[in-house]
Amino acid sequence: MNLNTKVTLFFIAIAATLLAVLVAISLYAFRSFSIASATDHIQTAGEVVRVHLTEAMINGVIDRRESFLNRMLEVRGLRSARVVRSPEVERQFGAGLNVESKPDTIERQVMAGGKPSFEVYEENGDTIFRGTIPYIATSHGTPNCLQCHQVDEGTVLGAVTMTMSIDGLRQKALATVAGITGAVTVFAILLVLLLRRLLRPISETATEVELAVQRALEGDFKAQVKQRTNDEIGQIANDMNRLLRFLDTGLNRIGMSVAKLTERTATPGENLLNATIEMVDGLSKAAHFKQAIEEDETKSEIYERLSTTLMKEFERKEFSLYEIASNKKQMKSIIVDGQAADGCRWCDPEILVRPEACRVRRTGHVVDSIDNPGICYAFQPPPDASDRRHVCFPIIQSGAVGSIVQIICAPDEEKKLQECAPLLQVYLRETAPVLETKRLMESLRDSTLRDPMTGLNNRRFLEEYVETLVAGVQRKRAHAAILMLDLDYFKMVNDTHGHDAGDAVIKSLANVLKQSVRASDLVIRYGGEEFLIILLDSSSEQAFQIAEKIRAEVEALKIQIGSIVLKKTISIGIADFPGDSSTFWQAVKFADIALYQAKETGRNRVIRFTKEMWSSDEDY
Ligand SMILES: Nc1nc2c(ncn2[C@@H]2O[C@H](COP(=O)(O)OP(=O)(O)OP(=O)(O)O)[C@@H](O)[C@H]2O)c(=O)[nH]1
């Protein structure tokens, strides 16, 4: 029900109530007035009858009383008039004329009580007012009642009963009330019409504002509200239009700016407001994501966070994260389906050793098998998920594909994946520079911990790693053998064949050392031609055997430098941590002392440190 109808109905209800009250009051007032007027008339007529009867008695013409009473009926409105005697008068003067009526119940009551009685009743469709008035004996006046009647003053002598029709009065009252009702009704109708006319612009403006708000809630801000008046209602329409234009322009601008960032625009029929909120929301989350990964310490943490985001924000369960090695010749699987992994689940593992088999790596473009089934031959889902499609996104670092995010989807998720792809690319664009920086930092850090010539870790690495190493040995209550190695008479190589020849010898030696130990052991270029090997979980005997094997291999090594072949030997000192010293660096020192012994005792040999080689008063 609109405002206009509501107000009209409300007004009609009030007008009807007022009218009803007015009619009721009017009818009551007219009835009261009619009765009061009839009462006055009957009392006056009663007095006239009394005076006339008194005169008739004095003049001795009381027998003409009935004729008088009949003449009275000629008075307009008077229907009947009769007089009855009280028992006291009957006692003195007899029952009276034959035509005299006997008192009825009301008259008897009036004569007994001395009080007049009035009543209204309907008779043959006429409204009759009846009044019965007692005549009471009084000594006032000349002549007075007591001069003829032998009764006490105050005695009821008789009663006169008159009836008169008040129908005429009632008709007049009804006609008046009808006139008032009609006038009030006409006035009320005019008022309602005027009110409706006044309310129509308010009601129509309100309806249009409501429609405009409804459309705005659905993302359409193009609705306009017509200005109908120049008052406040017109102002509301104008203000509403201004607000709608402002929102439309503002949201379009925000939408376009956001669309540039997300490469997504609201589709036709889509709620512009919701689409914009969704896009801004997504960008805000992406900004928080960027801040979080910038504060991450390592690449692994970034990949982990990206994986969590894919699961939580994008509701992905099946996906892979790959990283291309710096030399671009290998690819590493980092995370598969939310778990750290080093293998492939969704692709041919060949891509790990031959990255160019991966289409994204090769092209640097998004590869989408939803729109282009079979686009990448390296995509090989397992048999139990053969209906899956994939979309692979490159993360560009230093101008090339540095990492790859592969999203897998079941047929019923394809649309959803394509819808969220633009936002996912925002996340990946935010990730790219951060990952690039982390990779550069890691490679820079790696270069400071690695000897560039041999690729072995350097002394600085050992200094950083020693804490972890010692903690591991102590936790496992194990032993670590420390081998200190130094080429014999290496200076002669430089002096005789040049510095490059010396470098070649060092590189050859480094290769021999790397191949002689397990991957878990550490080979460190400790100084110029000095190397340190840490054999984890090795007893002294095992360490000695390995050292001896190294010595023999170096002795047998033929190093080709141009046209010449060089042969070198090596001396090795061994100490045990914590067997020889509970302090790691002192154990290193003891290995160095054993090496010194090997040099002193003829070189090309392995010497195990013994306590005798060290007197505690020597400087450490
Ligand atoms: N070519 C080359 N020479 C190096 C390198 N690092 C250290 N050297 C040289 O290695 C030589 C080490 O010689 P020394 O420590 O005197 O001893 P040595 O000649 O090996 O004799 P012993 O150790 O006593 O058997 C020095 O001449 C250094 O200049 C390097 O990276 N390349």
TrEMBL record:
EC number(s) reported in the record: 2.7.7.65
Domain GGDEF residues, every copy: 478-611
One of the record's GO cellular component terms: plasma membrane
Zinc-finger keyword on record: no
Catalytic reaction equation(s): 2 GTP = 3',3'-c-di-GMP + 2 diphosphate
TM ranges: 6-30, 173-195
InterPro entries, alphabetized: Diguanylate_Cyclase (IPR050469), GGDEF_dom (IPR000160), HAMP_dom (IPR003660), Nucleotide_cyclase (IPR029787), Rev_trsase/Diguanyl_cyclase (IPR043128)
Root EC class: transferase
A GO BP entry: negative regulation of bacterial-type flagellum-dependent cell motility
Molecular functions (GO terms): diguanylate cyclase activity
Keywords: Membrane, Transmembrane, Transmembrane helix
A Pfam family assignment: GGDEF
Domain HAMP: 196-252
PANTHER family: DIGUANYLATE CYCLASE DGCM-RELATED, REGULATORY COMPONENTS OF SENSORY TRANSDUCTION SYSTEM
Name of the protein: diguanylate cyclase
